[in-house]
Amino acid sequence: MGRTSTFLLSAAAVVVAGTMPALAAWQPQKPIEFVATAGPGGGTDNIARAVQNIITKYKLTDQPIVVVNKAGGSGAEGYVYGKASAGDPYKVIFGTSNAWQQPLVSKVAFNYTDLTPIAALAQDEFLLWVKQDSPYKTAGDYLKAAASGEFKMGGAQSKDTDEVLTRMIEKAGHIKLTYIPFKSGAETAVQLAGGHLDSHVNNPSESLGQWRGGTQRPLCVFSPKRLPQGAKVTATEGWSDVPTCVEQGLDIAQYEQPRTVWLPGKVTPDQAAFYVDLMKKVQATPEWKDYIEKSSQIDTFLTGAEFDKFIKEDLEHLKQVASEQGWLVK
Amino acid sequence: MDNFQELLHGFTIAITVPHLALMVVGVLLGILVGVLPGLGAPNGVSLLLPLTFGMQPVSAIILLSSMYWGALFGGSVTSILFNIPGEPSSVATTFDGYPMARDGRPTTALATAFGSAAFGALIGVILITFLASWVAQVALAFGPAEYFAVYFLAFASFVGMGGAAPIKTVVALAIGFAIAAIGIDTVSGSVRLTMGVDELVKGVNFVVAVMGLFGIGELLVAVEEEFHARAVSSKIDWREVFRAVGRLPRHSVALLRSAAIGCWMGITPGGPTAASFMSYGIARRFSRRGRYFGTGEVEGIISPETADHAAGTSALLPMLSLGIPGSATAAVMMGGLMIWGLNPGPMLFVDQKDFVWGLIASMYVGNIVAVVLVLLTVPVFAALMRIPFVIIAPLIVIICVVGAYSVSNSYLDVVMMLGFGIVGYLFKKLFYPLAPLVLAIVIGDKAEDAFRQSMLMSKGSLGIFFANKLVTCLIVAGIALVLLPLVLQLARLGRKPASPTSETTAQEKVII
Amino acid sequence: MISRRALELATAVLTGSFGVAVVVSSLDNGIGWSSAGVDSGTFPFLTGIIIVLGSLYNLVRGILPVATLANIPVAVTPTEMRRLAGLFVPAVIFVAAIPLLGMYLAAALYIFAVLAIPMHQSVLRSLATAAATALALYFVFERMFQVSLPHGALAAAFGF
């Protein structure tokens, strides 16, 4: 075959791929590995397994999918693994915003630019929680009492989403908090229930059981509007009854954590397109809606330029907080 | 007694043909993943999880928890037969289990381990049944300072004794702490001690260290001593299984003490690993035959196994009532609870009575099923000891390699495992104790985190460790345990001065 | 022949250099203890110092002829050395071959080599044991528990 005909053929292939984006030109030929950057049972592990189940159930691809946990170093292990697998389209990395947050504040051997962004699938909200029997009814009360400077705020990990939000609260409320990092949100919730902390900023799913059990309650949600109507959590209240923080005089309009999906670097656009399409199909199933509702997350889908824009904006904001706190790595 | 009524109702749920069948399947699969190091219960449970989505929540949890029981039992098998602990909590079982098996009594060692494990689990379930709400309250009293005090107590009960040269013990302990610190630090979020190896950001997994230190290290010592010349001629003897279990009541003091330690550590944040080490350490100190520990003593098997299972069982309670998983497996099960639409937490006992009491009843039945099944497998496993050394040795190497690899699909782990093998050989050869090293790898970073969280809370003051009765008691008990042997030794030295050197060499032989 | 003293020295040097590495790299993390908490390098630094001091003590004790050490002058005899090498060297080759050959092929070859070459078993039986090991690994890990063991560069070149 001469050079011209090869050229024509590939041109034709480009045209075909362009006109039928649903039938991506690339299809996986061997088993796919889902890398969860969290331990078994963690939020990121749950989402990877939920996606795996949906794909298997609806046979969205012919190839089997295996979930692998690489949770070491607060997820850095998984990202470093993704970086080392450059060009391999059979590794799909599930993470959070720490893909771009971690390299900013600690000397980890990766950056999000080493990976190919696929999509942000869901957003976790943050709330301000206090112990059930604490005297504060609103975020305003809380800020007034915290002015004493003796308040202890708990959270998962250090210099991660929870601590960033804590520092934002300090700034917005003109107070000083002592931040105590724990391994996970669940552990933090128990510490609050035991009265060892004054507050924390857990995601809804991390403190759902504790709220039902009457050991702690949310004061406000860091979201521009109240959470969607759902089933009641306690006898009288549900997520939609929690006021926004802005309503209560704590001026942080929006703070949320996306669940992100990545491929290793240096994969072809075709290969990336296949997975974007796959995630879109997953998101259209009733099982996905069910998972989102049970884990009290917000359904979103960001990909391509939108996702890039989201990362850039978040990164700008993080850089500002991190430089104020002196966290930036040299 | 309300709880008793509920429990009887629970039994009507648990004892049905489909549920009993699920238990048998779960236990058998559990034994398999438990026996294969590196696979472990968390892997097995997360693989079965998708299968349970269509089930009733109570059936699903029965299947998964049965698998957990099976894996707990199975984990002791390789510890005893090949000196390879598959889970952190079965390390202490190797100390006397392996010498006994190598001594030609693998059947006795396995049967003793399983029998006492079942006893520990039973006490743990009884505790859950009758003291659930009280236990949940106790667990809430533990903040970072109390966490640290519990870890300190675990170290104190185990370290500061034994026949090894004190400086070698200190070096081994410090190396363990340093290894535990590798990777990302929870309290500051910074990367520590990776020494230029990017992948080390994940830290050094315990299984990798232990496969090398114990598995490969012991293999090297054994091949050098021409271990295969005195290959074990263990007969397949069913009667010995029952005789070994029948002899257990003679050690009722050790059984009860270990079960108490296990339950206490299971409820408090210590967990099964700290429980088994602490129980072994205390048994060695207080048992009449304590100085023979490490040579294949029955109580050296009973103590860690009973405590391990008592802790492993009672650790499920904080999971159900507080939503904190006590172990990796419990974390996977908790993920399952959420997918089945249940929320772990204080309301579970009120909202989901059938589920909770069905589960608790299944713990009784599941453990009975598990112990019967594992006891039946004892002669089969014991027969493995009859395979000639030249064949079993390369198989052990493969098990260690595959085990180290499958922990996190990493080739670096395999290379590190071999490195740990050389260290294990050198340490064994030169009487550096391995147990403090392993204990420090497993709970060293947790102890450090708890200490530094306390310091954040107290703004740098050590006063927080004497701030309330609970933490003061724990710290004082720990200090007493460290000082006790020193005081005793001084008193003994006062009576008959100068110990002959022959005694030190005799002591060196039983260092673990 | 390796003397007990040489082995003690080598081990003390090994632990000591690990200690030095720990001390040096913990300096990067910062050392300090203030009302803002304990810095992340503090404890690694302290443990590193302890390792170094302990290793120095063990080193000195290893050099000085102390009574207890004199009891066992020889640590590893030449025969023992040969046996050690006979186990460890094939294991190292096996691990080194994994990236190229993959776990299954490397394991099978390893088993075959250590059984057939020293004539512990007949060639036929060695072959059978090797094949059984690889197959058992494949079914238990790859099929039952979906843990993917490395397939190796060679298999990748053939498109597996």
Describe this structure in words.
The complex is a heterotrimer of chains A (330), B (512) and C (160). Chain A has eleven helices and eleven strands. Chain A is α/β, with parallel strands linked by helices. In chain A, strands 2-1-3-10-4-11 form a six-stranded mixed β-sheet, sandwiched between helices. Chain A has a five-stranded mixed β-sheet with strand order 7-6-8-5-9, with helices on both faces. Chain B is an all-alpha fold. Chain B is built from 22 helices and two strands. A two-stranded antiparallel ribbon of chain B has the order 1-2. In chain B, β1 and β2 form a beta hairpin. Chain B is globular and about 60 Å long. With 160 residues, chain C is mainly alpha-helical. Chain C has two domains: 68 residues; 80 residues, no CATH class. Helix content of chain C is 74%, strand content 6%. In chain C, the strands form two sheets. In chain C, strands 1-4 form a two-stranded antiparallel sheet. In chain C, strands 2-3 form a two-stranded antiparallel sheet. Chain C is flat, with a radius of gyration of 24 Å. Chains in contact: A-B, A-C, B-C. The interface between A and C is small, with 6 and 4 residues.
How do the helices and strands follow one another from N- to C-terminus of chain A?
A: HEHEHEHEEHEHEHEHEEHHEH
* Strand line-up across the major sheet of chain A: 2-1-3-10-4-11
Coarse shape of chain A: globular
Beta strand count of chain B: 2
Gyration radius of chain B, rounded = 22 Å
Arrangement of strands in the largest sheet of chain B: 1-2
Largest sheet of chain A: 6 strands, mixed
Helix-strand pattern of chain B: HHHHHHHHEEHHHHHHHHHHHHHH
Overall geometric form of chain B? globular
Count of extended strands of chain A: 11
Which stretches of chain A are poorly predicted, pLDDT < 50 over at least 5 residues? Answer: 1-22
Q: Helix coverage percent of residues of chain A?
A: 40-55%
Q: What value does the average pLDDT of chain A take?
A: 88
Rounded to the nearest angstrom, the distance between the terminal CA atoms of chain A is: 55 Å
- Rg of chain A (C-alpha, Å): 22 Å
**Largest sheet properties of chain B:** 2 strands, antiparallel
Number of helices of chain A: 11
Low-confidence stretches of chain B: 497-510
CA distance, first residue to last residue of chain B:
47 Å
* Largest inter-chain contact set: B-C, 64 and 73 residues
